[in-house]
Amino acid sequence: MKILITADIHYTLKQYDWLMQIGPGFDLVILAGDLLDAFSTVDPRVQIAVVEKYLARLAAKTRLMVCSGNHDLDARDEHGERVAQWIAKGVRASGIPADGDAVSVDGILFSICPWWDGPLTKDRIGAQLARDAKAEKKRWIWVYHAPPIGSRISHEMREFGDAELARWIDEYQPDLVFCGHVHNAPFRPDGSWIDTRGRTFVFNAGRQIGEVPTHVMLDVEESSALWFSLMGPQTAALDKPLTFPVPNLTAAPAWLTAMDQAGGQNPA
Ligand SMILES: [Fe+2]
Q1: Average of pLDDT values for 167-194?
Q2: The listed CATH number (3.20.20.150, 3.60.21.10, 3.90.226.10, 3.40.50.740) that belongs to domain 2-263
Q3: Ligand 1 centre from 220 Cα, in Å?
Q4: Distance 237 CA to ligand 1 centre (A)
C-alpha cells in the first residue's frame, strides 16, 4: 500500500491542485488537518465549499482520509466545545472517512481522530482509541493533527505537542501516527519530519510556500518513507532504528520508480 500524507494546506489552492494531480497515483491519500485557514480573508463558508469540492474530486479517484485541525473548527457542539462540524458531518456524509472513524484497509486499521478543544471531545478520542484497540488488525495507524509532546516533530519556537497523544501512544503503541500542526518542526536543526516514541513512528511533514505541499510518501510493504520539501528529499526505513539527521534521498527507491513509470509522471 502506497500512501501520500500531507497536512496544513491551509486553503492554499495551488497545493490542492497538486494533490488532485498526484493523489490518484497512490492507494491512499491522508490529509492530517488544517485544510482551511482561520486567518484567511476568504469567508470560512466559502473555504469549506471549495475544499469539499476538491475532496469529492480526489475521493472519486482514490481512497482519501481526513482529520480536522485547529483551523478547521466551524461550530460548537451541544456542550460548547469547538468542533469541525463540516468534516464530522459533511465530509463523512459524502463517504470520506474522517473524524471519529475507524477504517480497515488490507488488515491495517486506521483510526482518524478529531482536533480536541475541550475535555469531552478529548474523552471521546480516548474512547475511540480504546474501542479500536480491541479490533483485529495487522497494523494500526492513527491520523491526529497535533504531534505528541516531547518529539522532534513537535517543537518550533516552543513546544506545541499534545501530552494526551503522547500518553495514548505509550498506552497503545500504534505502528504509525500521521500528524501536522507544527509547521516548521521539520526545518529546524534539531527537528525532523519523522521520529519515534517507543516502537511508534510519528510523522509531521511540516508546511511550506509554493505549489507543492511538504509531503510524505510511504510504502507500507517496503517499510520505506520519503519526505519531500524545499530542503530536498529525505528517506527513512521503518524496519530499522532511525538515525538523525535523517539521510538525504540519493536515488529513488524501486517502488517509487515503478509508480513513476506506471503513472507517467514524477510524483515528487
Ligand atoms: Fe497548521
Answers
A1: 98
A2: 3.60.21.10
A3: 26
A4: 26
